[in-house]
Amino acid sequence: MALPVAFFAVFFAWPVAAIVARGLKVDGVWQFGRMTDVVTQPDIRHVLWFTTWQALASTALTLLLALPAAYVFARLDFPGRQLLRAVVTVPFVLPTVVVGTAFLALVGRGGLLDELWGVRLDTTVWAILLAHVFFNYAVVVRTVGGLWAQLDPRQEQAARMLGASPLRAWRKVTLPALGPAVAAAALMVFLFTFTSFGVVQILGGPTFSTLEVEIYRQTSEVFDLSTAAVLTLVQFVAVGAILVVHAWTVRRRETALRLVDAASTARRPRGGGQWALLSGVLTTVVLLILLPLAVLVRRSLDAPGLGYYRALTDSDGGTFLVAPLHAVWTSLQYAAAATAIAVLVGALAAAALTRRDAGRLVRGFDALLMLPLGVSAVTVGFGFLIALDKPPLDLRQSWILVPLAQALVGAPFVVRTMLPVLRAVDGRLREAAAVLGASPWRVWREVDLPLVRRALLVAAGFAFAVSLGEFGATVFIARPDNPTLPVAVARLLSRPGDLNYGQAMALSTILMVVCAAALLVLERLRTDRTGEF
Amino acid sequence: MHHKTFVAAAVGLGLVAMSALTGCGSTDAKGSTDSRTVTLVSHDSWAVSKNVLKDFEKRSGYKVRVLPNGDAGQAVNKAILTKDNPQGDVFFGVDNTLLSRALDNGLFQPYEAKGLGTVGTQYQLDKAKHRVTPIDFGDICVNYDKAYFEKHRLQPPQTFADLAKPAYKNLLVTENAATSSPGLGFLLGSAASYGDQGWPDYWKKLKANGVKVVDGWEQAYYQEFSGSSEGRKAGGDRPLVVSYASSPPAEVIYAKKRPSTAPTGVAGGTCFRQIEFAGLLSNAHNTKGGKALVDFLLSKEFQQDMPLKMFVYPVVKGAAVPAEFTEYGPVAKNPETLAPGKIAANRDQWVKSWTSLVLK
């Protein structure tokens, strides 16, 4: 517990508190009056209202489209399943600038919908909602599907034998077991869409604004730190409230589950229903996810003889001092470091949270761990700058700052992915081991580790992917002149000319491939049998 | 006992992690206070040819570290937030729209750069105190799609007033003045042209004439504008866009196959001038190196390298401008300008009025 607490205190709470204090304290006097001033403005209230309802709508739509996919990926065995599961995670890590461009090719002017039915969705709220589904599909597929694959199907079969209808058996047996994972996934999607930034800016046009966009604008453009501080606190309170409610519902539904090896639960699809479900999910994936990604790849190949890719190796092409291709290496190093930190911190936190003697305070920490996902990147970035700039912790010029910021976003994923599984481990197993004389370390190694190994790998994969694609915080933080992939893409996109645009598309494609490859490797890793089942 | 072991392990790990981190921090901090290293803080558009920078390092004996720090606005704000313990020695990239914010916050210390005599006085906006040195300038102007206007046998617009004429209805796309610097520049240009009282009326006319506003330059230029190669592919149908005077040369230089003439042109009477400055940071660790670096930014070598790297024009008289620039993107004759003090006093209010006028 001490390490996660220290980590979040030093690298999250302190920087955020510092920047908020900077905004709300004038000549050493707190200006709490600013709060009512800001939140009573009609503009701000409008922003708050829009932020909330679009997040609710996005979450509902994502669950609707992705829950069937979670089932299909967990329980049905079909060729290309692993590859496809890696591919649906790719959108999650792509820079929004790039995705926005690709997505417009689908729903914008002259896009697919436009050509087929004359429907254009750009600058409508529908474009925002669909893009949110595109981005967050993997969150549901991976968190819910990860657990679903490990649920013992025999329990549902037993219910069927006792005369329950398939629906009833599912509702009474599987759904309660999946509840916490579904809630966790829904919460993550809600958090991401509540704090949505790039998607709203690009696809919604300038008329839609979320709280996050407003904080960015007040901090970065207007430099009105006091308004930004108030808005940060508002977002904090809103996110905190949701997290507390969520923590409460999840804990009420906690049950010990029988977990089995994921590889043994998937079957070839049987019967019309399963085939229909499979083809429905595959169609959604193709239309919603593969098509926009394919647009990116195609645009990166527009130059003859892979010209855009070859340009990436030119170190003096104009925009950077290093060859853009160098960004691939930089990104991988940062992401590896960030994943190590996130897994260490997240796993320790998750383990501490599932201890039976964990008190109320410790369990409350569960909700707090999610807060970094709900605080704007610009707030964290500026906070890092003014808080971590003096010895003994002068990190502003250290490369570790970027992985640290990325781990801050990655660690909650680790906790979220591991908690449902850890909580599902039957406590009696641990007690039995302890009674038989095993040390706590041995209990963890012999009982928990084999059960959570898969969850740990899934979590690490997610943390890695998130770090690879993280843009908001990375771009704000001091770093040597080594741009990460998303930063390099954004910089290339900020200049006119075919070659710059093409290189941005080529780098995005590389980011896509690297991410998919990393996830595939992890999928392979977990199939080395633990032999316990 | 459980509990204790766990806490001990966690604290142990924590200490290891912390010492590793602070270890990193202190070695790096040492690196930056080293008098042989000079650090340049800038925005993401900073670029220089490798050999030009190497030349300076060899000649001066300093090693240059560059910290790109987000877009121009962010970079300035960050520098202000960290001015007591700055990230570097020299800041490059504050422009006339943000100059007052930087100066009022005491970001820079005075230094009269060598070679300032060769810089046109119209660029020297801090003549009395020399807290900043002008380095480059560029113009934010409406670009037009040549093919569109040829095809429709229509004269491209030339002035702000033209843009409000019925002939150009539904042709212009611009950026959100609240979130994009060309968007803001275009608003400031119209305010300079029509005056404090007149600009809202002008924008009412533009709105009635179907101006489209998108959030950022990338969308405007790559998605909506029919003149850029990418805009054409994306099905962009707006032949007028707010961009830079240097965008047409960039279209030529960064084309897959170099065209004989630029596909786009600049409406010369719609320009707003941006001047970028560099300055020695107030609490710079390495003032000597910082001064040498500012001098370098005014050297002919750097000034002549700049146009093709950052797509801006040199401020030093006699610095050669590449042929592509003179051929495809001539310097605006009478760009609009506004004093930094006036911009500082009005910017937020103007942006607010503009937002409710144009976006709502």
From TrEMBL, chain A:
Keywords, alphabetical: Cell inner membrane, Cell membrane, Membrane, Transmembrane, Transmembrane helix, Transport
Domain ABC transmembrane type-1: 48-244, 328-522
PROSITE patterns: ABC_TM1
Pfam families the record matches: BPD_transp_1
Highest taxon, organism lineage: Bacteria
Gene Ontology biological process terms in this record: transmembrane transport
Compartments, as annotated in UniProt: Cell inner membrane; Cell membrane
Transmembrane segments: 53-74, 86-106, 126-151, 177-203, 223-248, 275-297, 334-353, 365-388, 400-419, 455-478, 501-522
This protein's record includes keyword Magnesium: no
Membrane topology, from the record: Multi-pass membrane protein
Cellular compartments per GO CC: plasma membrane
InterPro entries reported in the protein's UniProt record: MetI-like, MetI-like_sf
Xref: SUPFAM superfamilies: MetI-like
Listed CDD domains: TM_PBP2
Similarity-based family: Belongs to the binding-protein-dependent transport system permease family.
Protein name: ABC transporter
Organism (species): Streptomyces collinus (strain DSM 40733 / Tue 365)
Automatic annotation (TrEMBL), chain B:
GO molecular function list: thiamine binding; thiamine pyrophosphate binding
Keyword Ligase: no
Protein name in the entry: ABC transporter substrate-binding protein
GO biological process: thiamine transport
One cellular-component annotation, GO: outer membrane-bounded periplasmic space
Pfam families the record matches: SBP_bac_8 (PF13416)
Record flagged with keyword Transcription regulation: no
Keywords: Signal
Signal peptide annotation: 1-22
Gene3D superfamilies linked to this entry: Periplasmic binding protein-like II (3.40.190.10)
Entry-linked PROSITE patterns: PROKAR_LIPOPROTEIN
